[in-house]
User: Which sequence fits this backbone?
C-alpha cells in the first residue's frame, strides 16, 4: 500500500487504486472484459459473491455494487476507517446488514433518531458499558451522583478538578462519520428529530439543527440557586485564573462526560468559584447527573416526537438507562418499527424489529442515500 494513502483520505481518491484489483477479480470470476469502471455493465448480469467479498446472494451487477465492494475491501484492510481503542470488539460488517439498514431508512420518511455514547466512540470518547473498553470495564471510577454533588463540597472540588483537566481534550473532539451521516439525513428531510443521550455536542458540531439533548450538555455551566449560567469555555478561563498552579498536560483519555482520573494529591488545593450573581456554591454543568431526573417538559417533548414519527432508529445505545429504553417502548406501543445499530446487546433486543451489530464507520459508508 503506498505510504501516501492515509486513514482519512477521501474514498473517491483511492477508488482508482483498488479498481484494477476489483476488475481483475471480476474478470476472473465472470469472464467479463470490461473497458473501465465507468462502463455501463448489463443490468441483466448477475453474480453470486464468492469468499473474496460478502456472501449475500445474487445481485445485479452495477456501479453501486462496485463501489460498495471497494468500500468493504477498504474496511477489511483498515484504509479509511478511524481506529479507536474505545470501539468495542466487533465482527466485520455484513453487506446484508447494510442493505437492511438502507431499506429501513428509505422506507420511512419521518424517522426519529436516538443516539447514545456508542456513536461517539469513533471520535475518541469512551462509552460506559461496552465490554473491555467502556468506562465500567476499564476503571473503578463511577460517575458522580447528583445528591453527592449538591451535598458534599469535596465531591464538587474533585469533580471540577477532573473536569478542568479533561475539558481541553473533551471539547476538541470532532464529529465522526455517524454524526455527518445523520446531518445528511436531516438535509434530506428524512429525520423528525435527533434525540441524543450524549453531552458532547458532536451532533451540533456536525451541523445538525434539530437536536434534543436528553441528558443536557457539558457546554453550559449554571447555578442551582439562581438563574446564572456561563459558557463552559468561559468557565474554563475562570477556573484557570483561580488555579494557576495546575498544569494541563495533553490528555489522551477522557471519560464519557469529559473528566479524567486524578489522584488526591493532584486534586489537593484546587479552587472552584462561587456564583458571581448569588454567591452560592452550586455551579454545575447543565447535564442530567446519575440520580437526577430529566425535566418533565423535555420528557413531554420526546413523547411528542414519538407521536409524529413513523419509525425509530437507535444508534450506539445499550438502552440500559430507562430514559432511552422508554422511547423504544413508547414507539413500539404506537405500532411503529424500531431499528437498533449497536455493538453488543441492548435492553430492547427482544422487542425491536431490526438489530444490527456493526461499527458505524464501516456500515454507514455502504448506505446509498
Assistant:
Amino acid at each position: 500500500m503506498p505510504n501516501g494513502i492515509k486513514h482519512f483520505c477521501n474514498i473517491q481518491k483511492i477508488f482508482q487504486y483498488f479498481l484494477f484489483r476489483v476488475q481483475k477479480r471480476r474478470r476472473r470470476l465472470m469472464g467479463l472484459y470490461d473497458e473501465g469502471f465507468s462502463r455501463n455493465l448489463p443490468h441483466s448480469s448477475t453474480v453470486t459473491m464468492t469468499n473474496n467479498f460478502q456472501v449475500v446472494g445474487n445481485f445485479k451487477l452495477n456501479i453501486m455494487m462496485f463501489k460498495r465492494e471497494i468500500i468493504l475491501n477498504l474496511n477489511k484492510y483498515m484504509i479509511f476507517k478511524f481506529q479507536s481503542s474505545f470501539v468495542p470488539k466487533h465482527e466485520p460488517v455484513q453487506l446484508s446488514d447494510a442493505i437492511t439498514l438502507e431499506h429501513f431508512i428509505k422506507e420511512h420518511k419521518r424517522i426519529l433518531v436516538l443516539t447514545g455514547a456508542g456513536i461517539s466512540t469513533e471520535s475518541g470518547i469512551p462509552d460506559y458499558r461496552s465490554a473491555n473498553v467502556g468506562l465500567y470495564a476499564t476503571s473503578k471510577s463511577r460517575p458522580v451522583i447528583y445528591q453527592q454533588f449538591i451535598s458534599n463540597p469535596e465531591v464538587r472540588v474533585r469533580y471540577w478538578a477532573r473536569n478542568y483537566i479533561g475539558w481541553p481534550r473533551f471539547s476538541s473532539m470532532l464529529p465522526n462519520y455517524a454524526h455527518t451521516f445523520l446531518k445528511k439525513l436531516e438535509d434530506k428531510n428524512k429525520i423528525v428529530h435527533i434525540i441524543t443521550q450524549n453531552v458532547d455536542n458532536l451532533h451540533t458540531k456536525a451541523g445538525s439543527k434539530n437536536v434534543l439533548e436528553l441528558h443536557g450538555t457539558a457546554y453550559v455551566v449554571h447555578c442551582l440557586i439562581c438563574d446564572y449560567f456561563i459558557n463552559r469555555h468561559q468557565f474554563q478561563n475562570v477556573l484557570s485564573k483561580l488555579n494557576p498552579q495546575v498544569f494541563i498536560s495533553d490528555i489522551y483519555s477522557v471519560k464519557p462526560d469529559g473528566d479524567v482520573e486524578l489522584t488526591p494529591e493532584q486534586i489537593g488545593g484546587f479552587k472552584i468559584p462561587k456564583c458571581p450573581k448569588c454567591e452560592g456554591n452550586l455551579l454545575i454543568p447543565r447535564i442530567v447527573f446519575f440520580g437526577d431526573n430529566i425535566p418533565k417538559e423535555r420528557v413531554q417533548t420526546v413523547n411528542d416526537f414519538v407521536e409524529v414519527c413513523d419509525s425509530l432508529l437507535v444508534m450506539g445505545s445499550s438502552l440500559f438507562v430507562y430514559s432511552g429504553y422508554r422511547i423504544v417502548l413508547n414507539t413500539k406501543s404506537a405500532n411503529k418499527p424500531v431499528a437498533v445499530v449497536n455493538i453488543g446487546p441492548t435492553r430492547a433486543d427482544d422487542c425491536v424489529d431490526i438489530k444490527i451489530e456493526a461499527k458505524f464507520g464501516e456500515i454507514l459508508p455502504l448506505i446509498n442515500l
Confidence is low (pLDDT under 50) at residues 1-20, 22-61, 74-83. The first strand starts at residue 46 and ends at 48.
